[in-house]
Please model this.
Amino acid sequence: MPRTPNGPKAPNGRVAVTTQHNDNRRTGLNACETTLHPGNVTPASFGRLFSRAVDGHVYAQPLVLPGVELPGPGPRDVVYVATMHNSVYAYDAVDPTASAPLWRTSLGPSCPLPDPEIGPSHYRDIAVEVGVVSTPVIDAARHVIYVLAFTKEADGHHHTLHALDTRTGQPVLGGAVRVEATVPGTGDGSVGGRLTFTSKRQIQRSALTLANGTVYAAFAAYGDRSPYHGWVFGFDATTLRRTGVYVTTPGTGLGGIWQAGQGLAVDEAGCLYFMTGNGGFRPDGSELGDSVVKLRPDLTPADWFSPFNNAGLDAADADLGSAGPLLLPGTRLLLGGGKEGKFYLLDTAAMGHFHAGSDSQIPQSFFVVTPDANTHHIHGGPVWWDVPGGPWCYIWPENAFLRAYRFAGGRLDPSPVSTSTTTDPTGVPGGSPGMPGGMLSVSAAGRDPRSGLVWASHPWRENANQAVVDGVLRAYRAHDLTDEVWHSRMNAARDDVGKFAKFVPPTVANGRVYLPSFSGALHVYGPTG
Model:
């Protein structure tokens, strides 16, 4: 299947979104969107076309496959959505009259909350239940969608990797496999020099990643309840046999891989990149809390970076891993940032390790917002569009405006090239009253600056930290962020999002925008004329 800057493209020319943020570089870009543009995304010509019922909260980004050969109905464009009730739905992606699911599969009993084993006391980061937390990944050539579910059963809590046929929802590849491992380690929870993966302490938040013929799954924790570690597992994509395991803090603790749902990034050589949260750190790289980590395809360590103020980040709970990395197309550079609100630009061929006193060994670092009394955490990660005059990187931190930075000469200009002027109904600057800021996607027809749109999902009036709040979907002219062309509250009776789906970026494909909510629905937006 031919590849495009936004991931796989179907033979009929329509775009497939088979992984979180569109591709394994995590650009968030659909560069083949020829229907939607600033001229027709307006209150008069764009809005919600229909909604589809789902049975739980959705933390996973919807995925889209065009031209799926279904038994009986024949070829359909299909949107897939997984819920915290451990259901996976396949719906017709474009037909407003096709209200019934094409198929629905249950992956076992979810874990109702509160649960005395899940998170610390009064845990509220997740509401109602835990099931499928991460975005699945699709192998379009094999007709397989891989989904990782969390269940509570008679014998305890389990993480299980499932492979389902994209056409029927039926299990394939010999059936599901439990996520299990015991590895050498002397850190938190170890027994006799061995660490055992404990499902009830580990959340699988980061999107599944398919690369190197392997499905990769990364783990963190429910609300920092110890003992836990950052784990990465590899599973053979044809057999689901476990092929490798990596632990971020084998001799200490913590170091989880959340990334606000962002998937692991993958370069052309198949190496994997991710960012870790607070935890044990040693300058020799044996413990990598608050670090950017590079692994080889077999999950052996290849390189890493950690900021000079690692100890301060850990003490302040300022996780570097609150967001995931972006691999800048056409370069060997990686961009990422976390709760400190600072961007780090790294050379993936020599990531810099640790340098006491400063980060002068890396190409660039700077604060995306001048530090002030507010938090400006970065969640989810930046997105990218290569426009004439130099590519732009977009980010929307907490308590701040959406902004774009121009990339030129191997560096980002620290002064934003464009900034939104949105304010929310209560006058909060940036239109994003706290956590998590805006979750972003970009759509465009190639590099045509007249075609580009930045799509953002974020809370409408309230901070979404440990709360279920109302949400809003917004669209901005990508080369002029002062021009907000549309948002879902302009005609709320028709377009309202409902409750904000935390950390889920909009999915844009083939003239449609897909966004789930915590109101039991998948919303589909598009041209209304």
In short: Residues 1-7 have pLDDT under 50 and may be disordered. The chain is about 0% helix and 35% strand.
